[in-house]
Amino acid sequence: METLRKQKKNLRKQMKSATEEEKNGLQELWRGLKARHSALSRAESARKRRSQKKKNQERFYKDPFKFARQLFQQPRSGSLSVQKEQLEAHLRKTYSDPNREIPLSEPAGLVWPDAPGEDFNSKPPSLKEINAVVQKARAKSAPGPNGVPYLLYKKCPNVLKRLHKILRGAWSNLKISEQWMSPDRVYTPKEQNSTEINQFRPISLLNVEGKIFFSVMASRLTRYLTENGYINTSVQKGGIPGVSGCLEHATMIWEAIQRAKSEKLNLDVIWLDLANAYGSVPHQMIQLALRMYHVPEDIQVMLDDYFSGFRMRFSTNSYTTDWINLEIGIAMGCTISPILFVMAMEVILKAAENSAGPANLGGGCYMPPLKAFMDDITIICSKEYETRRMLERLDVLMAWCRMKFKPKKSRSLSVRKGKIDATTIFTVASQQIPTVSQEPVKSLGRWHDSSMKDTKRGLETVELATEGLLAINRCGLQVEAIEAKINEFTRRWLGVPPELTDVARYCRKAKLRVPLKSILEEYKCGKARLLSMLEDSEDPIVKTVQPTMKTGRKWKVVEAVDEAKECLKIKEVIGQTQIDSKELGSSTAKWWSKAEGKEKRDMVINEMRLNEDSRRVQKAVQQPQQGQWTNWDNALQKSVTWNEIWHMAPLRISFLISSVYDLLPSNANLVRWGKKEDPTCPLCQGRQTTEHALSSCKIALSQGRYTWRHNRVLKELAAIISTAKGETTLPNTNALIFTTEGGAKSWHGRPVRTTNQIKCLLGGCDDWEVSADLPEWDSHPSIIKETRLRPDIVIHSGSTQQLIMVELTVPYENRMEEAHTYKREKYMNLTKELENAGYKAVVMPVEDQLAKWYSAGISNPSRDEGMGSNPGAVQKKKKKDNRETPGSHDLGVARPP
Prior knowledge:
By secondary structure, the protein is α+β, with helices and mostly antiparallel strands. The chain is 46% helix and 10% strand. Among the domains are: 2-62; 76-95 and 114-229 and 283-327, no CATH class; 233-282 and 332-448, Alpha-Beta Plaits, CATH 3.30.70; 705-738 and 750-893, no CATH class. α2 crosses α3 (64-72) and α18 runs antiparallel to α21. It starts with a helix and ends with a helix.
């Protein structure tokens, strides 16, 4: 390409000094070079795209979650370009506190809690507590300076026991290891091409042993505070396990605004932002909080030693700073820091909560004037003077504890008689707080602006979903308004026609189940989950207010949840029933009256999903073409996994889905879609439907097309049986004890234990031989050769005079039962002849279709014959082989023009 570029440049120079006749020839040469250069450029671009596509696919197959996270995250890059001396000066300024040793005075109005009713557990940590912390931790969590990860303690129980002894000794002797207080810290970029300090986020890498030690302490401290009621969860919901704080606070604040709007009330809402909240809380404030909440002195001593000796150093690409003492703030990444910060904030909140009365939401509902989630503080008041008094009180308390608000990042919203009032201005730290009319604010995941509506957020969500789908489409993988966008892309990636309905994509009861989820269904379940969590909240304020869940006109979440609960209660009244061919007692039922908490929420969500699936099945029954699978009573369900889709050729995926839902481009379908006028088959002149092309064309049968597909399937099936013939151990199923109604025994005497263990046909001998009606396989036994019939596979034993005849058929799904009956009757006389000759003969018809379904009438030949100690392994091998689908696919795409 470089040579062509130089030649083009030289020709342009020659054309400047050439005559008119020479210019024509030079221009012709230049156009030829340009065409060659353009062709090479396109080829090079295509090569780069193929290379990038291959790299993306390899990255995706290696770690799909990591690939997706990098695909949707904003790009972050850069390196810190700051001199060592400048960085150390910044660190000393940030983490130094000249007033660290000066105790905080006690301001007026400080609320000291009563003595605890439940004492703090000061015993050394138990092995059970340590093991719970280790098992909960992420295996990929980065290790500290000593390089020991959580994975070591997860995989090595003896090492964990040794660590337990060390931690018990440290707790008993009130000793904190110096290694636990000396983390390495690194800077990670917040945005692309970051260079300055404020564009990076510091991360601490603490030793795992210290994190485990302080995790146990944090768990005990949290339990101590909650059991004694020291933390008001109606106000502070951050850092408290088992409390859906973010959801409850965000919902309650939004509910207060909506009620003020609809009922023409007055309301002030102020979102306050603390300046460097975690990095500016004084250690004296933490010690004061520990004393106020009656934490034992042993714990206070250990925490004081921990923060007094805490030091850190920062590493960049070119240097490592000197050790810097942490004299103020808490260490990010430290497991004890969050609950200590919550305690410090609780001291401030309790001292300020009496400065204003509860906010009046109408209808006899009132809300506390303060809401907090860790450092996010929200003021909610019905009277303006109370709002200003609360702001002044919080400002005084923050100045007392040497912290401060950031007015520019704070926001205010004022409602007067149901309408937004942009003229009311509040101040904090002697600066004005901007209103949401000037700039919207995002608090606890929800945006608030002057419209007091969610309409704009819905449009932004649709745009965000579209951008995400375009990003997936551009990366080169094979692969209600929002759902419409998603459907457009999923149909394109799967290679199926636009006519494919949502039943095919999302129905879990369909004969072909693909691993896609309906965004509409997830939205409904999410709303139902939120409603259930609010109803089950232990916060009395949440129960009293009962926030309204608005979901539009078409669907009401309250009605849907109530309907699901009624269905669950009715199911409990009816009791457990048999709805399929599974044995009695093979499954257990969960009853509504015995469920609690999260289990009840899960039951409601599951019932709603079942209702959605029932709606899809009802829709499928009304579809004569795509709903044909509803009549396939003898076909088992096939579930396609993501792993299969990732490793399956794109045309195979398209054919698999299109064949099940009769969307293949047969002549009958092409006529239906207006693409062709003649629906006849070019081979036999019959009407060419999908069923006709794949299994019913007489000319294709006479040409051996169906025989070719049959032999491909037979070859794979014979290989599997031949491999598994020597494995005859079957697992025992759980035994059942039958008792009479209200009785303790089945009948007089001992209870009878029954089991549904599968009978093993291959037991009792080890000389089984496998033959198949294929050219490359051994011929059948002589007693079979003497007859006119040729079973597809014969498994025979000479020592026990046993014969198992497997007869394969590859029918269309609606003819599985017919094919099974025909094959069994066909070999009935042969079976009797063999039995008369002294053989024990068994006929096993097998129906295997293009989507790898076995007929429900015969279940699984490998399982029935007892081949393999793990029947699932045979099924996995069959799925891996993709036997019959490629054959049917080749027949479908090789149709005559």
